[in-house]
Amino acid sequence: MNETVDQMPTLAPAVARAVEQAAEVLRSGGVVGYPTEAVYGLGCDPMREASVQRTLDLKGRARAQGVILIAADFKQIESFIDVDTATAERLRASWPGPVTWVAPARPEVPEWIRGEHTGVAVRVTDHPPSAALCRAFGGALVSTSANRSGEPPARSAAEVAAAFGDGVDFIVDAPLGGRERPSAIRDAATGRVLRPA
Question: Which of 23, 79, 125, 147 has the maximal Cβ count within 10 Å?
Fold first, then answer.
């Protein structure tokens, strides 16, 4: 699936403008709040260590845990994962959709993405605002739930603002994807469920 921005589902004009603004913030190293399939996420450029660390600090999340990356299509995440053809096809068959796979990371994937693991968690989202944000940014994004550690995830832009104040540089105010729970997480090598949906 290689949709251009013009081919993707039409977003409300205000959401489309917010997505473009958020992409600019991301490119400058900022942290944004944005809606995903079930909850709001915090996102940043995964290749900027300072941005990822700032995101983790906002949450109070340990660096060793690693982060999830979301993308608009397979091409945006293939440089992060080291999988054979059969595994790649299994991942593609579930995407775009609410399944996050933990796949072996390529050697060049930095520790601030992987944490203490040898794999990296990746998902090609079917949520139009999230996918639009990845396309506008031009690559995969960090996607970690918008909450301080131990607190419930935010489910609205207002809840993100209440939780983080000006710690977040921009918030995309758009609908969630309608799912009750965050995505399932599965092991790409075995198919084992690591977190149920």
Answer: 125
